[in-house]
Amino acid sequence: MGSLGSGELLILAVVILFVFGASWLPKMARKAGQNKVHLERAKTELEAAKATATAPIKGVTDTISKVDKTLNAKPSDLIRKMAEPTESTEAAASEAEAPVVDDSPDAT
User: Fold this and answer.
1) How many CB atoms sit inside 10 A of residue 91's CB?
2) What does the pLDDT look like over 21-80, one tens digit per residue?
3) CA gap 41, 19 in Å, rounded
4) Pick from 1, 25, 3: which is nearest to 14 by CA?
5) Residue 104 domain-assigned (yes or no)
6) Residue 30 lies in a domain
7) Could you tell me which of 100, 34, 107 has the C-alpha nearest to residue 26?
8) Which segments of 1-108 does DSSP mark as H helices, in order?
9) Angle at the Cα of 74 (from 72 to 76), degrees rounded to 5?
10) Structural domain total, the chain
11) What range defines the domain where residue 80 resides?
């Protein structure tokens, strides 16, 4: 079965108009518009509920993804990453290199 062409749709519309009458058409169009609004509102609410429900799961899947990348990494990549300085080690190194100045009056 194929889809309906424009001529077939026109004949179908004329038959529906004759069967149900002209007063029926505006009522059904109005009802269809109201149903569309209700469906769009329900869709928005469902999407918001889905986002709220899946937010904690996203954090877990991100963590699992990081662990998976770590487990599947080459040993040379892991060694290189471990050798890279982090922010905390850089801060500790800069504190150790800073000269200590004693401004106390007891200093001679």
Assistant:
1) 11
2) 878 888 888 999 999 999 999 999 999 999 888 888 877 888 888 888 877 877 777 677
3) 33
4) 25
5) no
6) yes
7) 34
8) 6-20, 24-71, 75-83, 87-97
9) 150
10) 1
11) 16-94
